[in-house]
UniProtKB/TrEMBL annotation:
This is Putative secreted protein. SUPFAM superfamilies: Quinoprotein alcohol dehydrogenase-like, Tricorn protease domain 2.
Length: 759
């Protein structure tokens, strides 16, 4: 197949047409699982209704709900857990154990729980009966290439060479090793299994340790041998995929995770994980970690809302040491332990504090914008950080803060702050750190306060794709890059791609009045792109930022009567998402906060003079107790909304679209439904027993050939809108969905765009 190359700025985009490898397709959750089949997890059978397992670390009491002691459970035994009430874990029969340091509670993966549901007699997932063509998807290759330096750490080798270790976002993520003496890149090492990496630390031997996401993989890089080692996945048998931070000593790597807010211990010598333990029930983030090796304490910053734990890992006891004044923060982003002082950076306030471990109180608060702090400079007895682009020095002995007047490039802050010695003056310790996503870094002399700005040329990396949508005429397919952004316009006729840079990750897009409107992440930004200009030079125009109202994402945008309506997902609010009404004539807007109480608004579609919407129970890292809502309102008065009762309970109502005959179609978790606004009747078809996600995991469209097509939990399906018979085109490897003018389907998987031919 002919390959088409097109040069755009520094990016070389290519399109190669090949068949999708068969191994990327797996079965759906229930295929291959027989009714009554036993499902095993962690060495024993996983029973229907079981939610976890408890291991007894020390003899503990078995009690009733009112506290009556039944007997003593012996150390070393284990029991299935079926429910919980407060801090009590239910072992069945109305008996409980306390959730404290005497026990270790663990939970099975979502896949295992789904398998039990499939094997149980209550499984009610319909069977696919609609024939599909059997055609193979065409791989159009990576579409978004970005230079995005995400995180960094500086260190030395045994010969006195200084390096800046930089994480390059891509698929997979890579580690770039930059020689600080020459500014040369000595090597780029793919971090297989990982699409990003945030946790970096260096041990006393100079070895760099890296914690990857989304598979929870640990890596190490030895600068003396220039070899990268993959130590495997350390989050197995947990629901976590993301390692947020690590700290390394001579023997162990300690790390903290999302979204289960756990802490793990990995043994460097045996190459085995020794434990993974929960921090606090109900939290989703264990964001930062520090270690006091002498006292055998771990300090763990968690959220949301923020807390700070002092964890004595000799007896597994935990104590909260965070004052109430900081508990409205989302989480503690970074920590550094220096002597008897624990430095903590709070998010999102851009405040930091110095906690005295002797007096057990905070003794200083200051403003900070860097991701963290340097270690202590023994020459000056100062640690360093940045705020508003300036390097500041904090003297731990006197408590004074010094403005060094050393300024970083405009609109940048330090991503990392580490001390090294350069060959030009090996007796002088200098501070260095990454400052942006483009490979820019600084070298600062703390004695002279002189600063030098440098930049290395990082190679563009293919990145995971994210939002996918078509132009109104369906000639162009638009593909957004995950995390590092970028928006590529793929011409479905000419088979060429052009990338527009300067656009961050998008959650939604909509065309109105000849313009493109996009919901940009982070900070829930509504932006406008003028379609009259050539694609490459276009510059998005900011219309609204909703972060000050606690919103972070705009999962849905639609339009009616020259008004844009958008729904949001909140992250820093105590309320639910808001509904935005933006008047395209006057450029004025209104917001309706907490529109669906304690829920997010994730789907909107206008039909017959109304706007219909769907919500998610997820908001602010919390779950609303009631199910997701299906609602509608008149554009002239969104305050008068009406709730429409669904015939099933779900956590998310996603991807509402206009179907044949004026019907509304959508996905309620693993069930596809249609609703007739005239007869007020529903039709439903359950495809999957369970799905994952917080604000989207489905994409539907009404195809040119008259069928409903959709992606749901990585599956691509086809459905007859009259009978609701369906068939799986793909059972794995398909996310998002759109079509071209010929009705061909486009979906994404990892960094590649795929086309499924309908004609």
């Amino acid at each position: 197949m002919k390959k088409v190359y097109m040069l755009f700025l520094s990016f070389i985009l290519f399109i190669s047409v090949v068949q999708l490898p068969k191994q990327t397709f797996a079965t759906d959750p229930c295929e291959g699982i027989k009714p009554g089949q036993k499902i095993y997890w962690d060495g024993s059978e996983l029973k229907p209704g079981q939610i976890g397992k408890v291991m007894i670390l020390k003899d503990t009491k078995l009690i009733t709900l009112d506290g009556k002691e039944i007997r003593v459970l012996k150390k070393g035994s284990s029991y299935r857990i079926y429910n919980f009430k407060g801090n009590l874990l239910g072992v069945g029969g109305g008996y409980y154990v306390k959730r404290d340091q005497k026990i270790f509670y663990k939970t099975p993966s979502k896949a295992k729980l789904a398998a039990v549901v499939c094997a149980s007699a209550n499984t009610a997932v319909s069977k696919p009966t609609l024939p599909v063509s059997g055609k193979k998807p065409v791989n159009l290759g990576p579409q978004v290439f970005n230079i995005s330096t995400m995180a960094a750490k500086a260190g030395m080798d045994a010969n006195g060479n200084a390096y800046l270790y930089v994480i390059l976002h891509g698929t997979p993520t890579s580690l770039a090793v930059v020689d600080l003496n020459t500014n040369d890149i000595l090597g780029v090492y793919p971090l297989t299994d990982s699409t990003s990496a945030w946790g970096l630390d260096i041990d006393k031997e100079g070895t760099l340790w890296v914690a990857g996401t989304n598979s929870g993989t640990i890596y190490s890089y030895n600068p003396n041998t220039r070899k990268l080692n993959n130590h495997g996945r350390v989050l197995v048998n947990s629901n976590d995929t993301s390692i947020q931070d690590i700290v390394v000593n001579d023997q162990f790597v300690y790390g903290v995770t999302a979204y289960g807010a756990n802490v793990f211990k990995y043994n460097k010598k045996t190459n085995k994980r020794e434990f993974i333990l929960p921090t606090v029930k109900g939290k989703q983030y264990a964001k930062s970690i520090a270690e006091d090796q002498k006292k055998q304490y771990l300090y763990i910053g968690i959220g949301s809302k923020a807390d700070l734990l002092q964890w004595n890992f000799t007896n597994n006891s935990k104590t909260s040491i965070l004052p109430d004044k900081y508990k409205n923060e989302t989480y503690i982003e970074k920590m550094k332990l220096i002597d008897n002082y624990l430095l903590t950076k709070f998010y999102p306030s851009k405040k930091a504090g110095v906690y005295d471990l002797v007096s057990k109180k905070y003794i200083k608060e200051f403003n900070i914008a860097s991701r963290g702090f340097s270690t202590i400079n023994k020459q000056t007895n100062e640690f360093y950080y940045t705020y508003e682009g300036v390097i500041y020095a904090y003297n731990l002995k006197t408590g004074t803060i010094r403005n060094t007047n050393a300024r970083l490039p405009e609109r940048t802050e330090a991503f990392s702050l580490d001390f090294v010695q350069l060959k030009s003056n090996p007796a002088q310790t200098v501070l260095t750190g990454l400052v942006d996503n483009k490979g820019t870094y600084f070298i600062f002399n703390p004695i002279t306060n002189e600063i030098t700005i440098k930049k290395f040329e990082a190679p563009p990396q293919p990145v995971n794709l994210y939002l996918l949508f078509s132009s109104p005429d369906k000639k162009y397919i638009y593909i957004n890059g995950y995390m590092s952004g970028g928006l590529t316009q793929y011409d479905s006729v000419e088979k060429t791609s052009i990338q527009l840079n300067g656009i961050s990750q998008l959650e939604s897009a909509h065309f109105a009045n000849g313009k493109m409107y996009i919901g940009s992440y982070p900070k829930a930004k509504l932006m406008e792109i003028n379609n009259e200009q050539p694609w490459g030079p276009r510059v998005p125009k900011m219309l609204v930022k909703l972060d000050k109202l606690g919103q972070e994402r705009i999962p849905t945008i639609t339009s009616i009567n020259n008004h844009l309506f958008a729904g949001t997902y909140p992250q820093y609010s105590t309320k639910g998402g808001l509904l935005l009404d933006y008047d395209l004539t006057t450029n004025q807007y209104k917001v309706y906060e907490d529109y669906i109480h304690n829920q997010s608004i994730i789907s909107l579609v206008p039909i017959n003079g109304y706007v219909y919407g769907g919500s998610s129970i997820h908001a602010n890292y919390q779950k609303a107790p009631e199910g997701a809502k299906f609602f509608r309102f008149k554009p002239s008065d969104p305050t008068k909304k009406g709730l429409i009762s669904l015939p099933l309970k779900s956590t998310m109502i996603m991807s509402l679209i206009k179907g044949p005959g004026g019907t509304i179609w959508g996905a309620a978790d693993g069930t596809i439904f249609s609703y007739n606004p005239t007869t007020k009747k529903f039709k439903t078809k359950k495809l999957l027993s369970s799905i994952s996600g917080r604000y989207s995991n489905a994409r539907l469209l009404f195809g040119k050939d008259g069928y409903i097509y959709g992606t749901l939990e990585d599956c691509l399906f086809k459905m007859d809108p009259n009978t609701m018979e369906y068939g799986f085109i793909l059972k794995k490897g398909a996310k998002e969905l759109t079509e071209d003018s010929n009705g061909n389907l486009y979906f994404r998987y990892l960094s590649n765009l795929y086309m499924y031919p309908i004609q």
